[in-house]
Amino acid sequence: MATIHILGRDFAIAPYKLGELRRAAPFIDNIQRKTDGNGSLSDLMDSAVDLLNVLSIGLAKIDPTLTADYLEANVSMDEFVGLQTAFLDLSEESGLKRKGEATAPTETAPAGASSTDLPSSSTS
After folding, report:
1. What span, in angstroms and rounded, lies between the C-alpha atoms of 99 and 8?
2. pLDDT tens-digit profile of 43-77?
């Protein structure tokens, strides 16, 4: 379980199932596109809102009032680093990325080839 400390409370969010990942996917894609190193404040704020959308999917199962809109209106930038950590933990626990491992290959490996023989994915 990913633990998130937000709004003075601690929550344990269970790894996302496929339906939750499907709902979170557009926001995760946006985060990946906007964290390419340009570093504009506008992109950072957009990524923060996308991150809140992803986390609200799990938080709403625990407390239905914790919608993305509610979080955006009440979360401060002081909590942002913790939210990023919770997002990374939740992503890993949901099977999207594992610490120390390469991103899953995008092509099928030929017989006898290892996954390290395949080109890396651009969605890391």
Report:
1. 28
2. 888 889 999 999 999 999 999 999 999 999 999 88
Whether residue 84 contacts residue 2, with contact meaning beta carbons closer than 8 Å, is answered with: no
Write down the pLDDT at residue 81: 85
| Residue-by-residue DSSP string for the chain | -EEEEETTEEEEEPPP-HHHHHHHHHHHHHHHHHTSS---HHHHHHHHHHHHHHHHHHHHHH-TT--HHHHHHH--GGGHHHHHHHHHHHHHHTTS--TTSPPPPSSPPPTT--GGGSPPPS--
Structure tokens that stand for 6 in this block: 């937000």
Q: Terminal CA-to-CA distance of the chain, rounded, Å?
A: 22
Q: Pick the residue with more confidence: 111 or 37? A: 37
Are the beta carbons of 66 and 56 closer than 8 angstroms?
yes
Query: Tokens 């890396």 — which residue?
Result: 120
Alpha-carbon gap, residue 58 to 13, rounded angstroms: 6
